[in-house]
Amino acid sequence: MKKLFGFCAVLGGAFCASLPAQDAKKEIQRYQQMIAEGSPVELFELQGEELWKKPQGPKGVSLEQCDLGLGAGVVKGAYARLPRYFNDADRVMDLESRLLHCMMTLQGRTREQATLRVFGNDDRPSEMELLSAYIAGQSRGARMSPGTTHPKEKESYELGRRLFFHRAGAWDFSCASCHGEEGKRIRMQELPVLYKPEHARPVMATWPAYRASNSQFKTMQWRLNDCYRQMRMPEPNFASDSTVALTLFLTATGKGEPYHGPGAKR
Amino acid sequence: MNARVFYSLAFIASAAFAQDVTKVLQRDFHARGQATMDRVVQDGVQRVCTESRDRPPAELARSLEADQMKTIVFPEGSLMGDWKRGESIAQNGRALQWTDKPGEAAGGSCYNCHQLSPQEASFGTLGPSLRQFGKLRGNGREIQRYVYGKIYNAKAYNLCSQMPRLGLSGTLTEEQIKDLVALLLDADSPVNR
Question: Which of A37, A96, A200, A236 is most buried, taking the most CB atoms under 10 A from its CB?
Fold first, then answer.
């Protein structure tokens, strides 16, 4: 509904309901372009950079020495190589789980403290959201190439693929229930067929993203969390292996696309 | 090896994978609000549809559909409620999520996937258009039963349908389903005008 209100407002009103489908589609594309042009992602990136450099936790250090996969402190291009296997943690990690790891190991924070508020709200973004804006922004132009060769990466990809097609929950949904068929919509929202490379590429190269409908910056972990909410499933644990596996499956499916996020979504 | 034995073996093998994924979900998910952990355990329909990628062997589908048909509780008398209430149930997308309050009026999320009344331009296309559904089919006893049953348990008619089992899952009450039957079949409903 929110979206329709959005683009009806842009059109200036009442004739919206009588738009033929083709025109409606064009208007939606124009609305999406307007969102992208007015996107405040750079503000989130700047706030994220401040947080990255801010000493925090019992050890009173910043995250600047965090190894995101390309070596301690290397931020440039790091996001485009995630998720990947990390030897020091012996697990496959996405951006958020790696940031959490660094908060715990470098800054000496507990998991409980560091995950107290992983998703922000209207009033205030979360630390994870701001950090992910900054880190992802440092990969603009880099081709998405997550880890797919280590045995644990292969295992994670395979789990992600199985989860994508796994039907469960009160309404019998899998990810593919909504993202499995070409040319479909929920309300006015067009649905990418996320197991197909041509659909996964533009999507995975633009998360994390700014959402115009609620003026918030959102992470990929949030995207999956909110899908499972609407699937009428219980809540996935933040940065759990399941969420990392799904992200790896989707990113590997869309690999090769130059990162051009953080994106702007409706 | 005949087809039935082949499929039985294939399903025994794939059931082991499904169990793995369920165990992973039990490890990686937690209950929140009314979204409890029993929801990650698949029933037979979910398992067969997962493992066959929604293309179950015909014989197995027929027998499981017959089982699902037995779950439908058809009320006595007319199955047509109030199409106006039906319209708001069709609009309402709140039900069974961890952000929804248990006991609060639930909706069927119908417009998420179906076109219904002409004045609602924001409709999804995951399901077929239901414009003029009753105008094309009348509203006799048979079609009332079909619509009621389909909403109550879509899997009784098409095993791996993407449509939720809105009655069986406890999403909608008997009254609410009757209101939706009226939305589709009542001659005065905007769906049929």
Answer: A96
